[in-house]
C-alpha cells in the first residue's frame, strides 16, 4: 500500500470511530500510534482534518466527559478537572 492510501485509510478509520463517540486529540494520537502512523506530520494532518471536519472538538469532549463522569461515576469537579488535564486538554476547553 502506498503512503497516500495509507494516510487516507488512517483518516477514514479515525473518522469512523469519532462518529461513534467523543474522543480527544490525545486519544486519537494514541490510536494513530497503535495503527502504525509513521511520522508526526501524518498524525498532525489527520488530527487537523478531523478538527476541520468537526469530528474532534476539545470543548465538546470536555462537556461530554464531565457530564458522563459526574452523572454515572459520581466524580467531583476536582477529579474531572484533573482527569482532563491528564489528557492534555487545554485549560480554556476545561473551563467551558
Sequence stretches where pLDDT stays below 50 over 5 or more residues? none
**What is the total number of structural domains?**
2
- Tally the beta strands: 0
Topology order in helix (H) and strand (E) letters = HHHHHH
Specify the biggest β-sheet. Answer: none
Q: How many helical stretches?
A: 6
Helix proportion: over 70%
Report on this model:
By secondary structure, this protein is an all-alpha fold. The protein folds into two domains: 50 residues; 38 residues. It has six helices and no strands. The mean pLDDT is 93.
What's the arrangement of secondary structure elements?
Elements: H1 3-20, H2 25-35, H3 40-52, H4 58-72, H5 77-86, H6 91-95
Amino acid at each position: 500500500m502506498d503512503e497516500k492510501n495509507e494516510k487516507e485509510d488512517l483518516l477514514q478509520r479515525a473518522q469512523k470511530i469519532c462518529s461513534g463517540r467523543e474522543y480527544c486529540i490525545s486519544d486519537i494520537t494514541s490510536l494513530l500510534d497503535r495503527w502504525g502512523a509513521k511520522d508526526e506530520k501524518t498524525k498532525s494532518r489527520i488530527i487537523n482534518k478531523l478538527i476541520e471536519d468537526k469530528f474532534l472538538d476539545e470543548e465538546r469532549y470536555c462537556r461530554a466527559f464531565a457530564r458522563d463522569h459526574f452523572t454515572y461515576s459520581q466524580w467531583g469537579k476536582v477529579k474531572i478537572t484533573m482527569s482532563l488535564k491528564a489528557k492534555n486538554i487545554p485549560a480554556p476547553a476545561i473551563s467551558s
